[in-house]
Amino acid sequence: MLIKQFAWIPTKALVVAGILFFLFTMICSYLNTITLIVIDVKIISLFIGAICLIGVAAFIAASSLSRRMYLSILLLVAIAIRLVWILAIDTQPNSDFQVMYESALLAAQGSVSFGDSEYFVRWPYQIGFTLYQMLLIKLFGTPMIILKLFNLVFNVGTAVLLYLIAAKVFNEFCGRIAMLLFAMYTPSIILCSVLTNQHLSIFLFFLGSYFIIHKGLTSRYHWIFIGLSYGLGHLFRPMGSFYLLAFIAYVLLFKLLRTPRKFVGSVLGKTLGVVVVYIIVQQLFSYTLIATGVTHSKLSNNEPYWKLVVGLNQPHEGAWNSEDANYVVQYAFGKERNQIELQMVRERLADKSALIVLFTKKFKSMWGDGDPSIFWSLGDIDIEHLSVLMVILMLTEGIAYFLLALFGLLSLLFLLRRNEYPKHALFLLMLLGYVIVHALIEIQTRYRIDILPCLFILQSYGIFVFYTSIKRLLISKNKPRKKAMNPPMTDS
Questions:
Q1: pTM for the complete prediction?
Q2: Both 22 and 59 in a single domain?
Q3: Could you tell me the residue range of the domain that residue 221 belongs to?
Q4: Are 345 and 312 within 8 A, CB to CB?
Q5: pLDDT tens digit sequence for 95-131
Q6: pLDDT in tens, 266-319
Q7: How remote is the C-alpha of 445 from its chain's centroid?
Q8: Which ranges in 292-385 belong to alpha helices (H)?
Q9: Exposure of 379 in the CB half-sphere (CA atoms within 13 A)
């Protein structure tokens, strides 16, 4: 009983941390976005543009359209926009995406020799997405557009999941807003032409999260679906363990404290079941690949300290750099290189005051800079007025991201005052956990999109509060005032 009396403490502490995150993100985003506006009224332009966009979005979300009609119209619009982009912009894979795509083509021809290449020996966890692409190529042929169309399917599927999640966490209005803004978000659209593993993995991770907040551990079988979704998601992007830890923390800090004693055993048992299902998926896939000769090791990170080495590099502010890359490859891959990298990590953690400066710079870059999906999609494209298009897209993304932070802040300020909607804690926990992890490891602004669905979910309540407050104010102003009680004047 005493524990339940203090069950509110983790929630309030989490919300306060979230308020600080959204406040600093909003400031960093604003400072980045105004550099793209060359007229003198920067602040006014940004503010008016933001309010107009939100006003239109709120009006659409609050429309009298039925759920089915709203979803149908928005799905058609979202699909059409992405399809036009995919057909118009012929993005070719580069960097890691090129390696995985070319390996998928090789695998589709029956050769699994790519598994012995240096890239996949160092990063065997990339094999899962490579084989996914290979499967699509075998089924539908080699046209690259097939892979991009599946990007579209999973991207739009994520938009639907955001509707279902936000409607469950908050209300119908919030579900509509979350889906609408994600469907219209610039990086969400233009990244569909890039052969990244993020579309599929994001869909699976948030599918698992939907099962958590839908019926969660009260359902007889949902724990299996949670474990499967997170386990499969990890096969395509190695973030499953992060979501699994966030789920366990959510259960221990927020669910268990509010669970009647007689159900505690069931909750803990199903939580353990999620972990077991997740592990089974990983082991089954790993040993299948080993048995078929695709790889000789499990789908794990064979260079576990590399991300920390890069993330703690102060001169390069935690971003990938050739200096570190060229240094570590001098040492034999495996135990020797891992020991060298561990030593580098320890040395870089030694100066505590310098770490604070590094973390501050990394936060500004990771959470304040513009999204680079524009460059991934358009970087090698030769079209007329490309520079103008890129500036427009960057400005659109910058304003939209600023809005996410602004209304995320508003949302948490209201949630701090009200002891309502406890399920939001799962997504705030994921978001803040992701922030902490990237304070330590390598950062790329592209990685931000993996956790952006959490921002869309959380900020939806801020728009709801803003919309209902404005609506209430307008109604009160339009109410006719009571007439004076003086007797009417008459001619005598």
A1: 0.90
A2: yes
A3: 198-236+239-300
A4: yes
A5: 888 999 999 999 898 888 887 888 888 888 899 999 9
A6: 889 999 999 999 999 999 998 898 888 888 877 778 888 999 999 999 999 999
A7: 11
A8: 306-311, 322-328, 335-350, 352-368, 373-378
A9: 12
